[in-house]
Design a protein that fits this description.
With about 210 residues, the protein is an alpha+beta fold. It folds into two domains: about 5-70, Winged helix-like DNA-binding domain superfamily/Winged helix DNA-binding domain (Arc Repressor Mutant, subunit A, Orthogonal Bundle); about 80-205, 2-Layer Sandwich (Muramoyl-pentapeptide Carboxypeptidase, domain 2). It contains nine helices and seven strands; from the N terminus they run H-E-H-H-E-E-H-H-H-H-E-E-H-H-E-E. It has helices spanning about 5-15, 20-30, 30-45, 70, 80-95, 95-115, 125-135, 160-165, 170-180; strands at about 20, 50-55, 60-65, 140-145, 150-155, 185-190, 200-205. The chain has a four-stranded antiparallel β-sheet with strand order 4-5-7-6, covered by helices on one side. Helix 2 crosses helix 3 (about 30-45).
Amino acid sequence: MRQSPANRILLLIKTEGPQLASTLGERLGISSEAARQQLTKMAEEGLVEAVSEATAGRGRPRQLWSLTTTGNQTFPDGHAELTTTLLTTLVSQLGQSALDAVISARETETLKRYRQEVDAPDMPSRVRQLAAVRTGEGYMADSWQEADGSLLLVENHCPICAAASVCAGFCRSELETFRAVLGAKVEREEHILLGARRCAYRITPL
């Protein structure tokens, strides 16, 4: 099904960060003015907001469009409120050890499944396979090789953000899962929970 211009704009900003109206117009195959009109309408709906960014020299500030909290909430959130309530109740009723057991069981099941789906002989291909698996789970992932030979796995969305906000153990568990399934050094360089737009992981062979 063909996406509406508004949905395409939301997706572009979500995956590529704040954008100029002219850039969005080019990507959508419409004029800058048409893109600006669409953005203005979306701003009235509370989905996007414009932020001025100073340019070098004496040029006029650039106007970059980014997602608001409401705009971000148009993407899957894994039933945030229910998840938060369940995890909070679990800890209050059964203790932290019960939540740790849940995280451990999830990690074991996830690692088993990932190892079946991420089996390429070379590291770049394995990272691409992992990105595809994570995209299927709602993380909007992508990967590429950097100039220094390291690999970057980027996740533009976190469908379990509510759970991770309540318990950092979910984020630690995912990091350990990546290391185990890739057989590589994996370091998180950007983190949504720390205010970044995305989660980014640098991957280097052991």
